[in-house]
Amino acid sequence: MAKTLISTHTASADTSIDITSGITSAYKSYEFHFVNLHPANDGVGLRFQVNAAGGDKGFDESMISTMFVATLNEDGSSGAVAYNAADQAVGTDYPLLNFNTGNDDDQSCSGVLTLFGPSSTTYVKHYTYTGVTSAEDDKVHNHFIAGYINVAAAIDEISFKFSGGNIDTGVIKMFGVG
Amino acid sequence: MGLTYISSVTASGSATLSFTSGIDATYNEYQFHFVNIHAATDSTYFGFQFNADGASGFDEAIISTAFKAEHNEADSATGFGYNGSQDQATTDGNGTYQHLTYDMEVANDEAYSGILTLYAPADTTFVKHFVANGNYIHHSGKYSQNFFTAGYINAEEAIDEISFKMDSGNIDAGTIHMYGVG
Q1: Would you state the pLDDT for residue B140?
Q2: What domains are defined for chain A?
Q3: A140: which chain B residues are within 8 Å (Cβ-Cβ)?
Q4: Confidence class of residue A1 from pLDDT cuts 50, 70 and 90?
Q5: Cα–Cα distance list, B167 to A177, B40, B46, B99, B109 (Å)
Q6: pTM for this structure?
Q7: What is the pLDDT of residue A155?
């Protein structure tokens, strides 16, 4: 199995980063690699949504997700791993991939979102995310998100944004796998 | 591009394994693939540390989480939980090797395999994130343990070297492959 770089998207105080081409039937799965996404606002979460091919292009597909998080304070206190209710029940919001990303000069988030079989017109579309966040309150978070886009139509566009404010800097790379 | 092979190191009764070249600004991500890392000493821990550009000693400050899932071969016990003895905070001081395993067993057919991802090591603005996941056999009771750690090197300097070693004894055998992602 090979991994092929399709496109690179560099943030510069962007409200969102939308990838509107390159998600096709060419690959069975797609990976989105986030490198040092730095928010303009403090304590915000990275989120994503998708568009179905031929839909209204409003980034409002129905999604459901689970979330669990490992966390530690920099002072060594409060280490824990647990399910987190910042998941998303069936709904059309942008589900969270993390939360509380800090905007100190050296804080950001990094990770990988994998989208499986987006060109299928039979199945719901599964996704998983694993990433690490330097949090606003000097914690480290290791987030694990998974779920599915609850539509049978093919998915051909994806959007990323923070829960508040711009994506100040950072890079998203899209790879095809297969 | 995609996943590009850079280099490998192979253990043979080695105290440490290190990559001291090839980590630079060429890639935004580096992956280290561990294949059958076998310890010489029973009940030990396999871990990693870094050097900032121009530094030595493999003693950078690391902040990390750690947790594991486990299931024994007898099918009589399972577990899932945070592992507070394997995480790192400022109170641990600099220089502690971040563990990728907890209490490995070293029978002839037992080893560790997994992947460590290091993000943007050449950056000089942000702390350096990493994520790792792998599997091995716990030394007591034949547990399959799936170990997760993630965190950051709490330094803004670029990182250009990485070292791997056991807490006690040598790395008896095994290979680490380094890839660039981009």
Answers
A1: 80
A2: 3-177 (2.60.120)
A3: 63-65, 150-152
A4: low
A5: 36, 11, 6, 9, 20
A6: 0.95
A7: 98
